[in-house]
Design goal:
Distance between the termini: 48 Å
Radius of gyration: 16 Å
Number of domains: 1
Order of helices and strands: HEEEHEEEEEEEEEEHEE
Bound molecules: D-sorbitol-6-phosphate, zinc ion
Number of helices: 3
Oligomer: single chain
Strand order of the largest sheet: 3-4-5-13-8-11
CATH superfamily: Jelly Rolls
CATH architecture: Sandwich
Shape: globular
C-alpha cells in the first residue's frame, strides 16, 4: 500500500513539505537551549527567525505492529560552529527503535544511550541507513550546504519524549573543525 515512490512523489525537496501529511515546523526561536553557544544563538535570533527544519508525519494506522513515518528536511547553516540540528528526543515508549534513511544532502546523527550515556556520531546521507536502537536519544544535523532530507520509520507506539533532552541536553556537541563534523564532550568545550 505504501512504497517509497508513493511517499516521495508527495514530497517537495525544496520546502520539505510532504503533501497530505501532518507538518511540524521548527524555527530558530523553537530551538532555544539546544545550541551550546548561547551568544551565537542570541546573535542569530536577533538577525531573524529562519525555519530550521520541517517534518511531515504520516500515521497510516495505530494498531500494535503498525509503523509510522516522517520525512524530515533540515535547512543548511550553523549557529557558531554548530550545525543546524533537531531538538532531539527519546521515544516515549522507550523500547521503540527507529530506522533512518538518508534521501538527499549530507548530515550526521548523534545517538546517546540513555542508560550509559555512550555517544556515537554516524553519517546520514543518500544510500545510508541508520538504526537507532530503543532507549537511545537521537538528534540529526545538516553538515552540508543543501537541505538534508531523510525518512524515519518507527513503531506507531513510539511517541516523543523531549523532556529529558530539554533539561540536560545531549552529553556531546557536534561542531565543525577544519570543515568536518567532530563530536566533543559538552563539558569539555
Ligand atoms: C520521529 C523521528 C523524526 C524526528 C525529526 C525531528 O521519531 O525521530 O521524524 O521527529 O527528525 O526531530 P525532533 O527531535 O524535533 O522530533
Ligand atoms: Zn525518533
Amino acid at each position: 500500500m505504501f512504497n517509497l515512490d508513493q511517499i516521495l512523489s508527495r514530497y517537495n525537496p525544496v520546502t520539505g513539505e510532504l503533501a497530505g501529511a501532518k507538518s511540524t515546523e521548527r524555527y530558530l526561536a523553537d530551538l532555544r537551549g539546544c545550541f551550546a553557544n548561547a551568544t551565537a544563538y542570541e546573535e542569530a535570533l536577533a538577525a531573524g527567525n529562519p525555519l530550521l527544519y520541517r517534518v511531515g508525519s504520516v500515521e497510516p494506522a495505530a494498531d500494535e505492529g503498525d509503523l509510522h513515518y516522517g520525512v524530515g528536511c533540515i535547512m543548511p547553516g550553523k549557529i557558531g560552529d554548530e550545525y543546524h540540528l533537531t531538538k532531539g528526543h527519546l521515544h516515549a515508549w522507550r523500547p521503540a527503535a527507529e530506522f533512518y534513511f538518508g534521501l538527499s544532502g549530507e548530515g550526521v546523527m548523534l545517538l546517546e544511550d540513555e542508560a550509559t550515556g555512550e555517544s556515537r556520531l554516524v553519517p546520514l546521507r543518500p544510500h545510508h541507513a541508520v538504526y537507532v536502537p530503543g532507549r537511545t536519544a537521537h538528534r540529526t544535523m545538516n553538515t552540508g550546504t543543501a537541505p538534508l532530507t531523510y525518512l524515519g520509520v518507527y513503531p506507531a507506539r513510539a511517541g516523543h519524549d523531549y523532556g529529558a533532552i530539554a533539561q540536560r541536553n545531549f552529553r556531546c556537541v557536534v561542531v565543525e573543525r577544519a570543515g568536518q563534523p567532530v563530536m566533543l564532550a559538552r563539558n569539555q568545550l
